[in-house]
Specification:
alpha+beta, Aminopeptidase, 19% helix, 7 strands, single chain, 7-stranded mixed beta sheet, 4 helices, 178 residues
Length: 178
């Protein structure tokens, strides 16, 4: 079955949690999973867990405290997990997840958002990180352990858009007026 585009204006993601069993099952099938079967699958710290309505894709945005970061992009938001088993294009899901992350956390840090790709653990396509590249991310370097680093700068991110289940602010209009 071919992959489909996410229809314009549709938000495929739902707000979830770091202990959602459906999301944990998807995380168990991701190469970065540390302890398969563990109830929680998200690193410590600030996080946003998104799950599609049919529970066939999961995204985790992490916002590590800079003092605990050991890579060159301290302060950046981090996609610490993305697994797509849905009918939707991964690049479309990435764009929607970044929009939901911006809605949830507000102004993106100057370093934007990053993710790491282990080329020894993913299927080779025309180019590594293809779905991130198609979603507007750029390859910006390597970690000390040789993982590829992809980044989307704050100025290149999609506009904030809430995931299903996120509460809208009653005072959003007032907060924008300075």
């Amino acid at each position: 079955m071919g992959q489909q585009r996410v229809p314009d204006g549709m938000m495929p993601w739902y707000l979830s949690s770091r202990a959602d069993a459906r999301a944990a099952a998807l995380a168990d099938r991701h190469y970065s999973r540390k302890t398969v079967g563990a109830a929680q699958f998200v690193p410590p710290g600030r996080c946003l867990v998104l799950l599609t309505g049919t529970a066939d894709a999961v995204w985790v945005s992490s916002w590590p405290y800079p003092e605990y970061v050991k890579h060159a992009w301290a302060g950046a938001w981090l996609c610490s997990l993305f697994r797509n088993e849905s009918v939707y294009l991964s690049s479309d899901l990435i764009v929607c997840a970044v929009a939901a992350t911006r809605f949830w956390w507000g102004t993106a840090p100057e370093q934007g958002m990053i993710t790491f790709v282990n080329t020894a653990k993913v299927r080779k396509k025309r180019d590594w990180g293809r779905c991130y590249r198609r979603a507007g991310w750029c390859h910006v370097g390597y970690t000390r352990n040789g993982l590829l680093v992809f980044q989307q700068r704050a100025c290149d991110m999609p506009a904030p858009f809430p995931a299903c289940g996120m509460q809208l602010s009653l005072f959003a209009d007032l907060l924008e007026v300075s």
